[in-house]
Automatic annotation (TrEMBL):
<keyword id="KW-0862">Zinc</keyword>
<feature type="domain" description="CENP-V/GFA">
    <location>
        <begin position="4"/>
        <end position="136"/>
    </location>
</feature>
<keyword id="KW-0456">Lyase</keyword>
<dbReference type="InterPro" id="IPR011057">
    <property type="entry name" value="Mss4-like_sf"/>
</dbReference>
<dbReference type="GO" id="GO:0016846">
    <property type="term" value="F:carbon-sulfur lyase activity"/>
</dbReference>
<dbReference type="Pfam" id="PF04828">
    <property type="entry name" value="GFA"/>
</dbReference>
<keyword id="KW-0479">Metal-binding</keyword>
<dbReference type="GO" id="GO:0046872">
    <property type="term" value="F:metal ion binding"/>
</dbReference>
<dbReference type="InterPro" id="IPR006913">
    <property type="entry name" value="CENP-V/GFA"/>
</dbReference>
<comment type="similarity">
    <text>Belongs to the Gfa family.</text>
</comment>
<protein>
    <recommendedName>
        <fullName>CENP-V/GFA domain-containing protein</fullName>
    </recommendedName>
</protein>
<feature type="compositionally biased region" description="Basic and acidic residues">
    <location>
        <begin position="142"/>
        <end position="152"/>
    </location>
</feature>
<feature type="region of interest" description="Disordered">
    <location>
        <begin position="131"/>
        <end position="152"/>
    </location>
</feature>
């Protein structure tokens, strides 16, 4: 696996992911993601990298390579991810905790977004008729009927 590079809008914060494939690439419909991103859905690439503190993991798979002093984070819940963003431009750069979630719009090299499913679709406010699997919560939760006209 090649490295994946990414950065914030103003290019002050840059990160790299090494030697790990995304575990899932999806669209999230949860209320928290929608509010944080001011969007009806949020595309995510989730990586199995544990980052409970700081902005670099012990195995060297994820690291903020530039502008670490410009990264700040917000944790909406005690159990949810920390949402890291750039202090200079305000761009959301990644979410971290038990997983690293990066936003495809931040990627500058090494990967492209290939969505596999929708998660937290029971919270959806915008119907998606794309044929991708839709899960009530995460991918391990109840799979909803494909493109059901009863539920957005």
């Amino acid at each position: 696996m090649a490295s994946i590079g990414g950065q914030c809008l103003c290019s002050a914060v840059k990160f790299e992911i090494h030697d790990v494939e995304p575990a899932i690439q999806c669209y999230c419909h949860c209320e928290t993601c929608r509010k944080v991103r001011s969007a009806p859905i949020v595309p995510l690439m989730l990586f199995p990298i544990d980052l409970p503190y700081g902005f670099a993991d012990k195995e060297g798979k994820f690291k903020v390579t530039e502008g670490a002093d410009l990264v700040t984070s917000y944790n909406h819940t005690h159990t949810g991810p920390r949402r890291a963003f750039c202090k200079r431009c305000g761009s959301a750069v990644f979410n971290c905790g038990k997983w690293i979630a990066i936003f495809p719009s931040t990627i500058t090299s090494g990967a492209s977004f290939k969505p596999e499913c929708h998660i937290h679709y029971e919270d959806s406010i915008m119907p998606m008729r794309d044929g991708l699997p839709k899960y009530a919560q995460g991918p391990e939760s109840q799979k909803l009927e494909e493109d059901s006209p009863e539920k957005p």
